[in-house]
Design goal:
With 335 residues, the chain is of the alpha+beta class. Helix content is 18%, strand content 25%. The strands form three sheets. A six-stranded mixed β-sheet has the order 10-8-9-7-11-12, with no helix packed on it. A four-stranded antiparallel β-sheet has the order 1-14-3-4, with no helix packed on it. A four-stranded mixed β-sheet has the order 2-13-6-5, with no helix packed on it.
């Protein structure tokens, strides 16, 4: 077994893209990405489910850009060691449920509550409007603009005619993240309370976005963007039963990876099954030619290959899992 990269897929799939292409043809990479995007939504295929550990400060966090969602979670704060529940965005609206969680100590159970996907920043600005600054680890990014669309403290769009405002990327001092010369900082002209969109060019380094206070140079971390991210989106979660001062929550999570397009030849494929990608390339071509029936047949073949690969890689075990739907409470009390 080997880890398959973008170049491997290009070589393997090229003659099945359209009427046949050379591996270096940009259409091959474009089609491979389209195939991956379709197949990722069809199941939790081999390699799509991973186990990660995160240290959570305060009571909320954002998943890394390449993770779609949390499937299961185990909470370990040094005192309690137990599986926790992952609740949907409708958790507070359940019939007989907890209702709106207004305070920081919402209830005694330490669970995850989904706050939704497609957040352009990892953490909220807060109730006070603030200007923004962007900082990169690479000198070549200095002077490049990224567009920020958002709203002020009256929920009015920032510069609605433009729309939004460009923030000029600056470099950390010497390229060392966390080191900054306070002279010459160029924050945005407008102050933001909400951010709706970050449109960033491909950069050489990682770019971090901060809310900024010029009077004392205080900075509030909002998000950090991979060089290839151009319209970033994150999924946020709230940790219930915790206030904003807890800094020692450790979470072990089973997560599903997000589709991320491959760009460089050495980028790892999201779908680690070259034959399935090849058949899916045929499906895409059939759909483009108007042959919907053949397209669906080929797509079903690709899904079958992925299903067989998953069964082979993860044979059945004696595990037994109980999940409660539309309920809350301490599961052990039920037995």
């Amino acid at each position: 077994m080997m880890i398959n990269t973008a170049l491997d897929a290009d070589i393997f799939c090229a003659k099945y893209v359209g009427d046949g292409r050379a591996a270096a043809d940009p259409l091959v990479r474009e089609t491979v990405n389209e195939c991956q995007q379709i197949l990722v939504t069809e199941g939790d295929w081999k390699g799509l489910v991973q186990k990660i550990r995160m240290q959570v400060s305060n009571n909320s966090f954002a998943l890394p850009y390449n993770i779609e969602t949390v499937l299961k979670v185990y909470h370990d704060d040094g005192h309690h060691h137990s599986p926790s529940r992952v609740w949907s965005m409708g958790y507070e609206l359940l019939d007989g449920g907890p209702g709106p969680l207004r305070g920081e100590y919402d209830h005694e159970w330490v669970d995850l509550i989904d706050l939704g996907d497609n957040w352009p920043i990892m953490f909220p600005i807060g109730n006070t409007k603030r200007p923004l600054i962007a900082l990169s680890t690479h000198a070549d990014d200095a002077g490049v603009n990224m567009l920020i669309r958002g709203r002020d403290d009256l929920s009015m769009d920032i510069s609605p005619v433009t729309p939004g405002e460009n923030v000029m990327i600056q470099q950390w001092k010497g390229g060392v993240e966390g080191t900054l010369t306070t002279t010459g900082i160029a924050p945005t002209t407008n102050s933001f309370v909400e951010i709706d969109l970050v449109k960033k060019p491909v950069t050489k380094g990682y770019v971090s976005l901060f809310a900024y206070q010029s009077s004392d140079h205080a900075m509030w971390f909002l998000g950090k963007y991979h060089p290839q991210q151009t319209q970033p989106a994150f999924r946020r979660y709230k940790l219930s039963g915790r206030d904003s001062a807890v800094v020692d929550d450790s979470l072990v999570m089973l997560v599903k990876m997000r589709y991320v397009p491959v760009v460089d030849d050495t980028d790892v494929l999201t779908i680690q099954n070259l034959p399935a990608l090849r058949v899916m390339c045929q499906s895409v071509h059939a759909r483009n030619m108007g042959d919907t029936g053949n397209a669906l047949t080929k797509q079903a073949d690709a899904i079958r290959m992925l299903d067989q690969q998953l069964k082979s890689a993860h044979p059945e075990t004696n595990e037994f899992d109980v999940q409660m739907t539309n309920s809350f409470g301490d599961l052990p009390r039920l037995f």
